[in-house]
Amino acid sequence: MANQTSKKMPPGWQEKILVVDDKVMITNMLKVTLEGEGTVEVAENGAEALDKINGKYFRLIISDVEMPVMSGIDLYKKAVEKYPSITGRFLFYTALPDPENVSFFEKNRLRYLMKPAHIKDIRTEVRKILKGG
Hints:
Elements: H1 2-8, E1 16-20, H2 24-33, E2 39-43, H3 46-55, E3 60-63, H4 72-82, E4 90-94, H5 99-107, E5 111-114, H6 119-130
Parallel strand pairs: 1-2, 1-3, 3-4, 4-5
Helix pairs in contact: 3-4
């Protein structure tokens, strides 16, 4: 009987995921998509995200690139400056296939998806990062 009860209980630890985008529709879609992968928090721009990163460990940061106040790339640069091991925990999710941004992603071996991405592709990339791959 104890085994049946324990199988129904949720795990005690959930990875923390930070979604950074200035569009509420995108953050809501990602929150629903990532339900079950971890606990999702949201930031509206890079500056707000950096404040959250400074106070808490996030296993994954999914960030838009073009945002007011601070871009996703500036967020990445500032986060890496303070926490060098954070590099592999970023996934960029952008609508602008700007060659300069793509070059930055490739040069730094960063994962990125173009908006709109299929939910299956988002989950696949998220799971790779959460598993450390």
